[in-house]
Amino acid sequence: MSKINKLSILILMAVLLVPRGAQADPIPWIWDWQWCALFDTCKDPVAPPYLEDAKHTQNTQWDRSRWKPADWEGQRVSPNALIKRFYRADVLRGQEVRHGMPVVVVGPNFYNLGGEEKRQLARTIDDLWHVTSSQPGMYLLYDDITGASVGVYTKDGLQLQ
Q: What's the total number of domains in the chain?
């Protein structure tokens, strides 16, 4: 046998006899993608159950929620103490009037709240200060850092930008 054939057989035997237990998992590539995701038939085991449902609009997503502001207010604290808790948590940063319109200034932790919690906060503010029952019947939410408008709260609920 020639040297090349002997070397080829030796390499083949070494490859076949080496244990494979220490190999890493294969790198996923485009053909590993789940095609059932196109048809909404597979369940994503990674997605946490507390994420919001993206199929419903923000306005109707929590229509069946039985939560009311009294659920927070009933924690044996005064309304002012409840609002101070939001200030301490850096969810709220201020309240003012701009051009005759009530404005609530939100802090960075406002964005850490989920959609339902943002609506609960806005509804609690309205319940405590009775903004929508008087003129102009709504208040605006502004970001403290950028100064940009974040949303508006009316008697119909919170509308985020």
A: 1
Q: What is the pLDDT of residues 43-72, one digit of tens each?
A: 555 544 444 555 555 555 555 566 566 666
Q: Is residue 47 part of a domain?
A: no
127: buried, middle or exposed (CB in 10 Å: 19+, 13-18, 0-12)? middle
Distance from C-alpha of 53 to C-alpha of 47, rounded to nearest angstrom? 11
CA distances for 151 relative to 41, 129, 130, 136, angstroms = 35, 18, 18, 15
Is 76 a member of any domain? yes
Q: Is residue 107 part of a domain?
A: yes
Lateral strand order in the sheet of 101-106: 92-98, 101-106, 139-143, 149-154, 157-160
Which residue range forms the structural domain that includes residue 116? 72-160
This prediction has a pTM of 0.57
